[in-house]
Write a sequence for this structure.
C-alpha cells in the first residue's frame, strides 16, 4: 500500500514539474501598477546553447486600469560582444469591444507576446534585454509619463515546441 502511495506521489511531482518543459528562461519584474516612461526593465540572460533556436516573448501583466487597446514597446537586445538590436513593437491588448486579451480569471490579465521566433544565440555569454514602454496619447508628441495598469513585465525564452 505504501509503495502505491509513494508511486502516486512521484508521478504527481513529475507531472507538475514537467508541465513547462519548453521554458529556458522566464523572469518578471514588478512596476507597482504604474510604469514610468523612463523606467527601463532589464533582464540578463545566458542562453544554454549557441546552436539551438529559441522563441522569445515579452510577458505583460495588466489590470483593468490599463486604458489603451494597444501597447508600444521598445525592446533592445545587447549581445555579449557589443552588438545591439533595437525594435519598436506594437501589441494589441484588447478586443474592439474593450475586452482585454490575455489569460486570467481576476482583474489581472497575463499576456505572452511574441518578440522573436527561432533565434539562435551565436555568441556565448550574457545577453542583456531592455524593455521600455513607448506609449503616446493620440495627437500628442509627449509620451505617457506614467502608464497605469501595467503591474509586471517579463521576458521568456522557450525551446520551440517542434524540436
Amino acid at each position: 500500500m505504501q509503495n502505491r502511495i509513494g508511486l502516486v506521489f512521484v508521478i504527481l511531482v513529475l507531472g507538475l514539474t514537467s508541465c513547462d518543459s519548453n521554458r529556458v528562461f522566464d523572469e518578471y519584474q514588478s512596476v507597482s501598477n504604474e510604469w514610468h516612461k523612463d523606467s527601463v526593465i532589464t533582464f540578463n540572460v545566458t542562453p544554454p546553447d549557441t546552436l539551438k533556436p529559441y522563441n522569445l516573448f515579452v510577458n505583460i501583466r495588466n489590470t483593468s486600469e490599463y486604458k489603451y487597446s494597444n501597447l508600444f514597446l521598445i525592446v533592445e537586445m545587447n549581445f555579449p560582444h557589443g552588438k545591439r538590436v533595437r525594435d519598436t513593437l506594437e501589441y494589441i491588448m484588447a478586443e474592439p469591444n474593450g475586452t482585454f486579451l490575455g489569460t486570467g480569471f481576476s482583474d489581472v490579465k497575463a499576456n505572452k507576446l511574441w518578440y522573436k521566433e527561432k533565434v539562435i544565440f551565436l555568441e556565448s555569454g550574457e545577453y542583456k534585454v531592455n524593455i521600455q514602454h513607448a506609449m503616446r496619447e493620440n495627437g500628442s508628441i509627449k509620451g505617457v509619463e506614467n502608464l497605469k495598469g501595467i503591474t509586471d513585465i517579463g521576458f521568456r525564452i522557450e525551446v520551440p515546441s517542434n524540436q
Q: What stands out?
A: Confidence is low (pLDDT under 50) at residues 6-17. Helices lie at 2-17. The longest strand covers residues 109-120.
